Amino acid sequence: MxxxxxxxxxxxxxxxxxxxxxxxxxxxxxxxGPFNPGLFMLDNSATFSNGAxxxxxxxxxxxxxxxxxxxxxxxxxxLRQPFKLREWEQGYNKKLDRVASFNxxxxxxVCPLGRNTTPGEGLAFIxxxxxxxxxxxxxxxxxxxxxxxxxxxxxxNSLVAIEFDxxxxxxxxxxxxxxxxxxxxxxxxxxxxxxLGIELAPDGEASTDGVVVFGVGGSVVSRGNxxxx
Length: 229
Hints:
Helix content: under 10%
Shape: globular
Oligomer: single chain
Order of helices and strands: EEEEEHEEEEEEEEEE
Protein backbone atom coordinates (compact mmCIF):
# COMPACT_ATOMS: atom_id res chain seq x y z
CA MET A 1 0.00 0.00 0.00
CA UNK A 2 1.64 3.18 -1.16
CA UNK A 3 5.08 1.65 -1.70
CA UNK A 4 7.03 2.41 -4.84
CA UNK A 5 6.24 0.44 -7.91
CA UNK A 6 9.26 -1.48 -9.10
CA UNK A 7 8.07 -1.32 -12.65
CA UNK A 8 9.98 -1.61 -15.86
CA UNK A 9 8.37 -2.03 -19.23
CA UNK A 10 10.83 -4.21 -21.08
CA UNK A 11 11.49 -5.54 -24.59
CA UNK A 12 9.07 -4.45 -27.32
CA UNK A 13 5.98 -2.38 -26.83
CA UNK A 14 3.70 -2.49 -29.83
CA UNK A 15 1.18 0.31 -30.27
CA UNK A 16 -1.25 -0.04 -33.15
CA UNK A 17 -3.79 2.71 -33.78
CA UNK A 18 -6.38 2.61 -36.53
CA UNK A 19 -8.23 5.86 -37.15
CA UNK A 20 -11.04 6.82 -39.52
CA UNK A 21 -10.43 10.11 -41.31
CA UNK A 22 -12.98 11.34 -43.87
CA UNK A 23 -13.79 8.28 -46.04
CA UNK A 24 -10.41 6.58 -45.78
CA UNK A 25 -9.11 4.21 -43.17
CA UNK A 26 -5.63 5.15 -41.98
CA UNK A 27 -3.42 2.90 -39.90
CA UNK A 28 -0.58 3.86 -37.58
CA UNK A 29 1.77 1.22 -36.22
CA UNK A 30 4.82 1.72 -34.00
CA UNK A 31 7.10 -0.62 -32.11
CA UNK A 32 9.07 0.68 -29.12
CA GLY A 33 11.94 -1.25 -27.58
CA PRO A 34 14.42 0.20 -27.11
CA PHE A 35 12.35 3.30 -26.50
CA ASN A 36 12.92 6.56 -28.37
CA PRO A 37 12.74 9.29 -25.69
CA GLY A 38 11.74 11.87 -28.29
CA LEU A 39 8.40 10.15 -28.85
CA PHE A 40 7.23 10.36 -25.25
CA MET A 41 6.40 12.93 -22.60
CA LEU A 42 7.52 11.85 -19.13
CA ASP A 43 6.25 13.20 -15.84
CA ASN A 44 7.37 12.90 -12.23
CA SER A 45 9.66 9.89 -11.62
CA ALA A 46 9.28 8.27 -15.06
CA THR A 47 12.53 7.79 -16.99
CA PHE A 48 14.26 5.61 -19.56
CA SER A 49 16.78 3.01 -18.40
CA ASN A 50 18.71 0.55 -20.57
CA GLY A 51 16.29 1.06 -23.44
CA ALA A 52 13.24 0.39 -21.26
CA UNK A 53 10.57 2.70 -19.93
CA UNK A 54 10.74 2.88 -16.14
CA UNK A 55 7.91 4.61 -14.31
CA UNK A 56 9.48 4.70 -10.82
CA UNK A 57 12.92 4.11 -9.24
CA UNK A 58 13.47 0.40 -8.75
CA UNK A 59 16.53 0.07 -6.55
CA UNK A 60 18.25 1.59 -3.56
CA UNK A 61 21.07 2.61 -5.93
CA UNK A 62 18.71 4.65 -8.10
CA UNK A 63 17.21 6.19 -5.00
CA UNK A 64 20.64 7.53 -3.98
CA UNK A 65 21.43 8.54 -7.54
CA UNK A 66 18.36 10.70 -8.05
CA UNK A 67 17.83 11.60 -4.37
CA UNK A 68 14.31 10.20 -4.55
CA UNK A 69 12.63 7.85 -2.05
CA UNK A 70 11.28 4.54 -3.30
CA UNK A 71 8.05 4.90 -1.36
CA UNK A 72 5.00 6.80 -2.57
CA UNK A 73 6.17 7.26 -6.14
CA UNK A 74 4.26 7.44 -9.40
CA UNK A 75 5.25 8.23 -12.96
CA UNK A 76 3.56 8.74 -16.29
CA UNK A 77 4.65 8.35 -19.91
CA UNK A 78 2.47 9.58 -22.77
CA LEU A 79 2.96 9.44 -26.52
CA ARG A 80 3.64 12.91 -27.89
CA GLN A 81 1.57 12.28 -31.01
CA PRO A 82 -2.18 12.50 -30.32
CA PHE A 83 -4.68 10.28 -32.12
CA LYS A 84 -8.27 11.06 -33.01
CA LEU A 85 -10.31 8.09 -31.83
CA ARG A 86 -13.79 9.43 -32.51
CA GLU A 87 -15.27 11.67 -35.20
CA TRP A 88 -18.78 12.98 -35.70
CA GLU A 89 -20.48 15.74 -37.65
CA GLN A 90 -21.58 18.98 -36.04
CA GLY A 91 -25.01 18.54 -34.49
CA TYR A 92 -24.23 14.85 -33.87
CA ASN A 93 -25.78 12.44 -36.31
CA LYS A 94 -25.34 8.93 -34.92
CA LYS A 95 -25.18 7.46 -38.42
CA LEU A 96 -22.11 9.58 -39.11
CA ASP A 97 -20.44 8.81 -35.77
CA ARG A 98 -17.16 7.00 -36.43
CA VAL A 99 -14.98 5.40 -33.77
CA ALA A 100 -11.44 4.20 -34.39
CA SER A 101 -10.12 0.86 -33.18
CA PHE A 102 -6.66 0.23 -31.76
CA ASN A 103 -4.63 -2.32 -29.89
CA UNK A 104 -1.53 -2.16 -27.74
CA UNK A 105 0.64 -4.94 -26.34
CA UNK A 106 3.52 -4.62 -23.91
CA UNK A 107 5.69 -6.46 -21.42
CA UNK A 108 6.14 -5.12 -17.92
CA UNK A 109 7.53 -6.03 -14.52
CA VAL A 110 6.02 -5.10 -11.17
CA CYS A 111 7.36 -7.04 -8.20
CA PRO A 112 8.82 -6.66 -4.69
CA LEU A 113 12.33 -5.26 -4.33
CA GLY A 114 13.24 -8.17 -2.09
CA ARG A 115 11.90 -10.67 0.39
CA ASN A 116 9.48 -9.42 3.03
CA THR A 117 8.71 -6.31 1.01
CA THR A 118 5.47 -5.21 -0.60
CA PRO A 119 5.33 -4.42 -4.31
CA GLY A 120 3.77 -1.26 -5.64
CA GLU A 121 0.07 -1.15 -6.38
CA GLY A 122 0.40 -1.82 -10.12
CA LEU A 123 0.07 0.23 -13.28
CA ALA A 124 -2.50 1.39 -15.81
CA PHE A 125 -2.64 1.89 -19.57
CA ILE A 126 -4.33 5.26 -20.04
CA UNK A 127 -6.19 7.08 -22.81
CA UNK A 128 -6.84 10.75 -22.18
CA UNK A 129 -6.98 14.15 -23.87
CA UNK A 130 -3.71 15.69 -25.13
CA UNK A 131 -3.68 18.42 -22.49
CA UNK A 132 -4.08 15.86 -19.69
CA UNK A 133 -0.61 14.40 -20.02
CA UNK A 134 0.64 15.54 -16.59
CA UNK A 135 0.49 13.39 -13.47
CA UNK A 136 -1.92 14.41 -10.67
CA UNK A 137 -0.20 15.22 -7.38
CA UNK A 138 -0.21 12.46 -4.75
CA UNK A 139 -1.43 9.90 -7.28
CA UNK A 140 0.76 7.12 -5.88
CA UNK A 141 -0.45 3.94 -4.18
CA UNK A 142 -3.99 2.84 -4.92
CA UNK A 143 -4.46 5.72 -7.38
CA UNK A 144 -2.08 4.09 -9.91
CA UNK A 145 -0.96 7.45 -11.30
CA UNK A 146 -4.48 8.16 -12.58
CA UNK A 147 -6.19 10.35 -9.98
CA UNK A 148 -5.87 11.38 -6.34
CA UNK A 149 -8.13 11.67 -3.30
CA UNK A 150 -9.56 14.99 -4.54
CA UNK A 151 -10.03 14.24 -8.25
CA UNK A 152 -11.09 10.60 -8.25
CA UNK A 153 -14.42 10.15 -10.02
CA UNK A 154 -14.43 13.65 -11.51
CA UNK A 155 -15.66 13.64 -15.17
CA UNK A 156 -13.12 16.39 -15.82
CA ASN A 157 -10.41 13.71 -15.58
CA SER A 158 -11.37 12.69 -19.13
CA LEU A 159 -9.62 9.34 -18.96
CA VAL A 160 -10.18 5.69 -19.72
CA ALA A 161 -7.68 3.17 -18.38
CA ILE A 162 -6.98 -0.52 -18.11
CA GLU A 163 -5.50 -1.22 -14.68
CA PHE A 164 -3.21 -4.07 -13.68
CA ASP A 165 -3.70 -4.12 -9.92
CA UNK A 166 -1.84 -6.33 -7.47
CA UNK A 167 -2.97 -4.87 -4.12
CA UNK A 168 -6.53 -5.38 -2.91
CA UNK A 169 -8.61 -2.40 -1.86
CA UNK A 170 -12.11 -2.66 -0.39
CA UNK A 171 -13.58 -2.12 -3.86
CA UNK A 172 -11.34 -4.70 -5.58
CA UNK A 173 -12.15 -8.38 -6.18
CA UNK A 174 -8.66 -9.51 -5.11
CA UNK A 175 -4.96 -8.62 -5.25
CA UNK A 176 -4.41 -9.94 -8.78
CA UNK A 177 -6.82 -8.48 -11.31
CA UNK A 178 -7.37 -6.25 -14.31
CA UNK A 179 -10.03 -3.58 -14.52
CA UNK A 180 -11.62 -1.05 -16.86
CA UNK A 181 -11.59 2.40 -15.28
CA UNK A 182 -13.37 5.57 -16.35
CA UNK A 183 -12.31 8.75 -14.51
CA UNK A 184 -11.76 6.77 -11.31
CA UNK A 185 -9.64 4.08 -9.69
CA UNK A 186 -12.86 2.23 -8.86
CA UNK A 187 -13.21 0.00 -11.90
CA UNK A 188 -16.40 -0.24 -13.93
CA UNK A 189 -15.52 -3.85 -14.77
CA UNK A 190 -12.95 -6.13 -13.13
CA UNK A 191 -11.71 -9.65 -13.69
CA UNK A 192 -9.45 -11.72 -11.47
CA UNK A 193 -6.40 -13.13 -13.22
CA UNK A 194 -5.85 -15.94 -10.73
CA UNK A 195 -8.35 -18.36 -12.33
CA LEU A 196 -6.62 -17.70 -15.65
CA GLY A 197 -3.23 -18.78 -14.33
CA ILE A 198 -1.69 -15.29 -14.52
CA GLU A 199 0.13 -13.57 -11.67
CA LEU A 200 0.93 -9.86 -11.89
CA ALA A 201 3.53 -9.67 -9.10
CA PRO A 202 5.11 -13.09 -8.48
CA ASP A 203 7.41 -13.64 -5.51
CA GLY A 204 10.20 -15.13 -7.61
CA GLU A 205 11.32 -15.18 -11.20
CA ALA A 206 8.63 -15.72 -13.80
CA SER A 207 8.38 -15.85 -17.56
CA THR A 208 7.01 -13.00 -19.66
CA ASP A 209 4.69 -15.05 -21.82
CA GLY A 210 1.41 -13.89 -20.32
CA VAL A 211 -1.24 -12.34 -22.53
CA VAL A 212 -4.39 -10.52 -21.45
CA VAL A 213 -6.99 -9.26 -23.90
CA PHE A 214 -9.75 -7.01 -22.54
CA GLY A 215 -12.76 -7.52 -24.80
CA VAL A 216 -16.19 -6.03 -25.33
CA GLY A 217 -18.25 -6.10 -22.15
CA GLY A 218 -15.16 -6.56 -20.00
CA SER A 219 -14.49 -10.16 -21.03
CA VAL A 220 -10.91 -11.35 -20.52
CA VAL A 221 -8.95 -13.83 -22.60
CA SER A 222 -5.55 -15.04 -21.39
CA ARG A 223 -2.58 -17.15 -22.40
CA GLY A 224 0.55 -17.99 -20.42
CA ASN A 225 1.64 -18.01 -16.81
CA UNK A 226 2.74 -14.55 -15.78
CA UNK A 227 2.88 -10.92 -16.78
CA UNK A 228 5.98 -10.13 -14.75
CA UNK A 229 9.64 -11.06 -14.83
